[in-house]
Amino acid sequence: MMLIDPHIHMFSRTTDDYEAMAAAGVVAVIEPAFWVGQPRTSVDTYIDYLSTIVGWERFRAAQFGIRHYCTIGLNSKEANNEALAEGVLEILPRFLLKEGVVAVGEIGYDEQTALEDRALRAQLELAKEFDLPVQVHTPHRDKKSGTTRTMDVCEEHGIAPHKVIIDHNNEETVTEVLDRGFWAAFTLYPKTKMGSERMVDIARRFGSERMMIDSSADWGVSDPMAVPKTATLMLQRGIPQADVERLCYANALAAYGQSGQMNETDWLEPAPVDQRTLFEGNSVLRGQSPVVQEPAQAPARADEDLLIE
Amino acid sequence: MNDEAKRPATLLSEWVGRQVPAAADWLAEAMERLGSGATDRDLYLAVSLAPRKVGKDDLTLDEADLSSAERARPGWSPAGWSVDQAARLAVLLAADSDDETFARRLDALFRTGDVGELITFYRGLPLYPAPERHVARAAEGARSNMKAVFNAVAHYNPYPAEMFEEGTWNHMVLKALFVESPLYPIRGLDDRANPALMRMLCDYAHERWAASRPVSIELWRCVGPHADAQAIDDLTRVIGSEDERERLAGALALKASPDPEAARRLAAAPELRAKIESGAVSWESLARR
Q1: Residues B111, A95: C-beta atoms closer than 8 Å
Q2: What digits encode the pLDDT tens for the residues B106-128?
Q3: Where is the domain boundary, B165, B186, B218?
Q4: Is residue A113 in a domain?
Q5: Is residue B2 part of a domain?
Q6: Residue A153 lies in a domain
């Protein structure tokens, strides 16, 4: 089964992760622009970060046969640094038409401050101007009302719900998100919050329409194999394969494909120029179908791995 | 045929228009608008939009097109380009600006470039005004670990041989070996061979031998013409290899050396010498084998 992780910060991950993901069937990832842990102090470092996710990281992923896309935006945390935020909002248009940019994101609220609100609204206007989908980060604290408020603001700015992916949902938020016509993404966290077991229950209750799962793996405790693992668990627990495929592949493609920048042919039949540049030296994708594998558990690091031959 | 050499921007737009008629008007209008004074933002937008307008197919060129390219800019080889690359460079070159403005805009484009853009802008190096202004940028490309970006500077591009000072040139050649990029597509490879590069390459070969790792046969191409006594010993080791490609490479390198000692070593391997002197073996054919 081919898989897509539509929210993962490969910027903060290792090549081991790429290898394991590719082996488990991940063909494409979407890397949202985010807060890198250490707050940025100037627009210049923000520019270099955005250039990294449209450039270097895309190349790095391609070395493992994984297609890399990204979303571009000013995250809610750093929206609170007013000087930085002004500068970033000014340069964002330079990045929104880059190849592989599939949405404005991840944007939304953290503490729901006035500055966050301003940045969110400015970026919703950019999404309209550039005709791009929107990837919304919903707050970890005060989640339910923050989620509702974000959807209200999207509607207020005239953004159609089918162009908006609301991320980090849980059982408390999903009903309203789906009822209002938005896409609902679920982030699978290894320890707390939403886990694979709970996701199986959600798939049973809500099916698979307009829903997708992601890992949001980053620099913290997180699991880049969350999508393959959860896909496997869902199949084991009897969720129909068609539903699993929608949750773990097709819906992400449909939602972010609205950008015109993400097509199945990108990994099934890449353009010759991409084969020469992005997939050079990679034997997985050479104008042919990728090796399709059943999702597998991440290979546990055994003691034998430490033996040096 | 007209004898007047066309400007590269004109050729690029003709090729794109011929191959993607649906986008010909867009490109012509963009170039005209940019040519009569346009803002930075107009240029950046046109560069960003190009692949969406013209697609990403390989640029189809025939022999006549390649001759036109050579007339327009000696050494320029657009073979292997794609239509979006051609369109992007056409609008960039069409934009009306002085050298200072051009360099500033190019710098901004590089700074925020995605992978495809970086490759395109490096491939365009031989076409830019005031070539001396772009040396530092080109050297940065030659330090890239993105192989396709590195290749855009190093391969089929006359700019490095024309503009890089010796140290930069030598590191580009060495970097090619590190990223496992072939050397034969590097323009001016033989003309720019020098004793310092010879020494760096022999040292690198010794490192690889010490680690029991293979040594690119192309490495010896830049060693032969300036081989010192120690390098001639290295080449003697190479012609004794079990691998025929290595033996032939060593023989080609010895043949390129003006040192009589190199000729004596090669004479001691008459079979190899005969093969080399038959003219059937070239560096490129050997590298492609």
Answers
A1: no
A2: 999 999 999 999 999 999 999 99
A3: B165
A4: yes
A5: no
A6: yes
Residue A282 covered by a domain = no
**B233 Cβ contact partners less than 8 Å away, ≥ 6 residues apart:** none
Which residues on B lie below 8 Å from A271 (Cβ)? 56-57, 82
Span A145-186, pLDDT tens digits: 999 999 999 999 999 999 999 999 999 999 999 999 999 999
A to B CB pairs, distance under 8 Å = 67
The last residue of one of the domains, among B165, B183, B203, is B165
Give me the CATH number covering residue A137. Answer: 3.20.20.140
Phi, psi at A102, each rounded to 5°: -105, -5
Query: Domain range for residue A201?
Result: 3-276
- Would the pLDDT of A294 be above 60? no
Neighboring chain B residues of A91 at a CB cutoff of 8 Å: 112
**Domain count of chain B?**
2
The strand pairing partners of A179, in sequence order, are: none
Which tens digits make up the pLDDT trace of A231-282? 999 999 999 999 999 999 999 999 999 999 999 999 998 888 887 787 765 5
Cα(B104)–Cα(A43) distance, rounded to whole angstroms?
A: 18
Domain count, chain A: 1
Percent of the residues in chain A that have a pLDDT greater than 70, as a whole number: 90
Asked if residue A220 is part of any domain, the answer here is: yes
Q: Are B12 and B149 within one domain?
A: yes
Residue B151 lies in a domain: yes
Q: What's the CA gap between B132 and B121, in Å, rounded?
A: 15
Helices (H), chain A: 15-23, 43-54, 56-62, 82-96, 114-129, 143-156, 174-179, 196-206, 226-236, 241-245, 251-257, 265-268, 272-277
In a domain, B17, yes or no: yes
pLDDT at A283: 42
Calculate how close chain A gets to B2, using CA atoms only, in Å: 32
User: CA-CA distances (angstroms) from residue A25 to A66, A241, A270?
Assistant: 9, 15, 17
Question: Same structural domain for residues B115 and B12?
Answer: yes
pLDDT band for B198, please (50, 70, 90 cuts). very high
Residues B20 and B65 in one domain: yes
Of B85, B114, B146, the CB nearest to A54: B114
Instruction: Write out the residue range of the structural domain in which residue B67 sits.
Output: 8-165
Is there a domain that residue B189 lies in? no
Question: Which residue of A lies nearest to B40 if distances are taken between CA atoms?
Answer: A94
Tell me the average pLDDT of chain B: 95
* Digit-coded pLDDT (tens) for B42-101: 999 999 999 999 999 999 999 999 999 999 999 999 999 999 999 999 999 999 889 999
